[in-house]
Amino acid sequence: MNALLLLMVLIWGANYSVIKRAFEEVPPQAFNAARITIATIVFLAAIVWSRRRGRQSAGTLSRVLYTPATLTPRDFWDLVWLGLVGHCAYQFCFVRGVAETSVSNAALIIGTTPAVVALLSAALGHERISRVHWTGAAVSILGVYFAVGGGVTLGGTTVQGDLMVAASMLCWAIYTLGSSRLISRHSPLYVTGMTMALGGLPYAAMMLPQVRQVAWTHVSVWSRSAIVISALLALNLSYLIWYAAVQQIGAARTAIYSNLVPISAMAVAILWLHEPVSWGKMIGAGCVLTGVALTRLGRAGPTVAIEE
């Protein structure tokens, strides 16, 4: 599992630069609508296969792919709202944000997700929060300020993108917390695939006019390949690894690996896109990673068990 999580870190880190490069040819929302449609079709096909195989194999199929739990009305509505928040709203804000800011800024803002998840979890009463935990959250926020906030003005070139990425980060934090109960009952494949279908397909439908405006015959093979690669690796494979890890080793240990994504993203952006990295970004990266580490150390344990 550790090797798979490190693979996920590399994929998500590189994905920032892949989509940023592709945006030079394909409008961001059109690109994203195309890749989400591909990823959703793959997930739904995998769900159909796993359910058939799981019923035939009498419990021998991995719980990552199949669980026999029945879908309750509460499960269904949880899938609906999680899909709208975690895929529709998240994808819209994330892609627009990445298009309007730098890879480094976007990655560092997303890097604060574990700290935000911890704070929201404490606010909901799922776990207690210590002074160390609060300190970690504050250090993470300070890190984002150093990286993207210094000298920001309302007319700045990246401020709108930074805010959109921050909104996407909040959507992902809510999605992560909200999916905990479902992951305990259903397979990661089923939860991820169904929420993507319920949230991603409406998003793709809304972006259909932008998709139709693209002269696809004039888009390079590289950019068209980037759509497929980003769908299969950054969405299908990496999402499945993430929730398989949450199911097998727990959210806390899994979240530690997400701390490495900003470093991976910044390294790829420097080498491939030749993005400049200022001392402010270096200090900010250090603060974000330190802050997130403190939020992990400061966890005092759950106060209320997740409802089954």
Write the layout of secondary structure elements.
Elements: H1 2-22, H2 28-56, H3 73-100, H4 103-110, H5 113-123, E1 127-129, H6 131-149, H7 159-178, H8 180-185, H9 188-206, H10 208-213, H11 221-249, H12 251-258, H13 261-273, H14 279-297, E2 299-302
Helix pairs in contact: 1-11, 1-13, 2-9, 2-11, 3-7, 3-9, 4-6, 4-7, 4-13, 5-6, 5-7, 5-14, 6-14, 9-11, 11-12
Describe the structure.
The structure is a single chain. With 308 residues, the chain is mainly α. It has one domain (2-301). The chain is 77% helix and 2% strand. The protein has 14 helices and two strands, in the order αααααβαααααααααβ. The longest helix is centred in the N-terminal third of the chain and has 29 residues, at 28-56. It is globular.
Tell me briefly what this model is.
This protein has 308 residues and is an all-alpha fold.
Highlighted features:
308 residues; mainly alpha; 2% strand; globular; disordered C terminus
The sequence of SSEs as H and E is HHHHHEHHHHHHHHHE
Q: Report how far apart the termini are.
A: 26 Å
Number of helical elements? 14
Helix- and strand-based class? mainly alpha
Strands ordered across the widest β-sheet: 1-2
For the report, how would you describe the main beta sheet? Answer: 2 strands, antiparallel
Shape label: globular
Mean pLDDT: 81
Number of E-type strands: 2
